[in-house]
Design brief:
mainly beta; five-stranded mixed beta sheet; 289 residues; single chain; Immunoglobulin-like; elongated; ten-stranded mixed beta sheet; 18 strands
Length: 289
């Protein structure tokens, strides 16, 4: 026989249990503190930042065209691994990614450069202000002519435009110049050659006439003749290093293509229109993908 008191006890017990459960659900749980280097809310979090630990000093001038950099990130002392993005201006206009912490750049032309590196966490959090280091390459003893590429560390594919800079290096008392370049007509097609603001425009003068071989004849002969001369001005001649012209080609087929100076046909003239001995010329070879 079921006793009525027993039923009431069961009902009271059920009601108390339900009230206790409801009260527990209404309490807001406290945030559990934890330390995690990738969580911005953690006391242990540090924003990503790469530190250069080996490489040329900022502002250094190097007598080698090979440069080595080594760096580390803030996750180096944790169990997590970073990746890094890097760029070398003005040779690279896009960031490149790497899991390495060191890098060597080879065959850099005489010029000024800035190396940028930034750390990237596995959460894809990226260093806001990249770490940077500026330096200059000065290998060539002038007076010299050399060719440099725009964005020389970027790939060139068939159909791409290849842009070169004709550079005058360590000139003294120069009024005029002439260069002759050779290139493979089966691999490259000349598009244009234009004067740039550079060494011959360094001080005021009446003008700097510039003459270039027409593209049609250059693409038939595989040679480009470029000449420029200062007219008037005070001083009549100028000194230093700087660009002379920008030359544009179309890449035609895969393989290596060399653009070289015909040194015996290159001349430099001083303020008295006398020939200045040219020490060296430096062409370049590009790989077309």
């Amino acid at each position: 026989m079921h006793h009525p008191l027993s039923g009431r006890r069961s009902a009271v017990f059920f009601l108390l249990s339900w009230l206790l459960l409801l009260n527990a659900c209404e309490k807001v749980p406290q945030r559990v503190a934890f330390d995690h280097p990738l969580d911005p809310a953690s006391d242990q979090y540090k924003a990503p930042k790469a530190t250069i630990i080996s490489g040329p000093a900022d502002g250094a001038t190097l007598s080698s065209n090979q440069v080595f950099f080594e760096w580390e990130g803030r996750l180096a002392e944790t169990r997590f691994s970073s990746s890094f993005d890097y760029r070398l201006a003005p040779q690279m206009n896009q960031w490149r990614s790497t899991d390495n912490q060191q890098l060597t750049f080879d065959q850099l032309a005489d010029d000024s450069y800035t190396f940028y590196i930034r750390e990237r966490y596995p959460t894809d959090s990226v260093q806001v202000d990249p770490t940077q280091r500026s330096f200059r390459i000065d290998v060539i003893d002038g007076p010299a002519f050399l060719l440099k590429r725009f964005h020389s560390l970027e790939q060139i594919r068939q159909g791409d435009t290849l842009e070169l800079i004709l550079q005058a290096e360590e000139f003294e008392n120069v009024m005029g110049l002439k260069t002759v370049l050779s290139f493979p007509i089966d691999s490259l097609k000349m598009l244009s050659a234009k004067q740039t603001e550079g060494i011959l425009n360094r001080s005021a003068c009446s003008g700097v006439p510039f003459v270039s071989s027409p593209a049609d004849s250059a693409n038939q002969d595989g040679m480009i003749e470029l000449s420029a001369i200062r007219l008037g001005g005070d001083p009549v001649a100028v000194s230093g290093s700087g660009p002379v012209a920008r030359i544009r080609f179309r890449a035609l087929k895969a393989g290596d293509a060399s653009v070289d100076f015909i040194k015996d046909a290159c001349t430099i003239r001083d303020g008295n229109n006398q020939s200045i001995p040219l020490n060296t010329t430096v062409g370049l070879t590009v790989t077309i993908e």
